Task: structure prediction
Amino acid sequence: MPNTIESALGSSSRAGALSRRSGSVVFGVVIFIASEVMFFGGLISGFFVLRAGSAFWPPPGQPRLPVLVTAFNTVMLLASALTMYRALQQAQRDRWQASGRWMIATMLLGAGFLASQGREWVRLVGFGLTARSSVYGALFYTIVGAHGLHVAGALVALLFVFGRLRRGAYSAANHEGLTACWIYWAFVVWLWPIIYVTVYLS
Result:
């Protein structure tokens, strides 16, 4: 009986420690996102200041931005928010194979977004829009490039979490790593329409 009680107490203690550690992961991601909101807010504000001080917009001599292709890429990235949410839903229901499939779909959509955006950026460079060609070009690549790096980082995090999911590291009661990843993915997804409207449509 004493051993049973000690075992139960030990299990409870480990569960509590795990819960606190998992909660700190989510909290850390939220704090990080708050700092990134300020970072991108500063960049977008700089873009508005540049536009307000320009007699013509876009500045003369700059190639037209690929609005339609980027609109398709935007839809692709927004769709990944749905697939990631479905992955979290399935995890909450202890359906790990389904959760993994939705995560794969999310990663494919995210990678497709980056590949398509990268192809368009290369074309823009070929048309003369570079980070050194003008302040407009520098700010354009800083904003969209910073977002692209965040998407790439989120994909790495997704791949890491997916590996842990496949190894059975999560449960329906404890999947905070997946929750933290979902929160960060939602951030990079919903940030993009703001950037798209500001940079491509303004």
About this structure: The longest helix spans residues 2-52. The chain has one domain: 18-200.
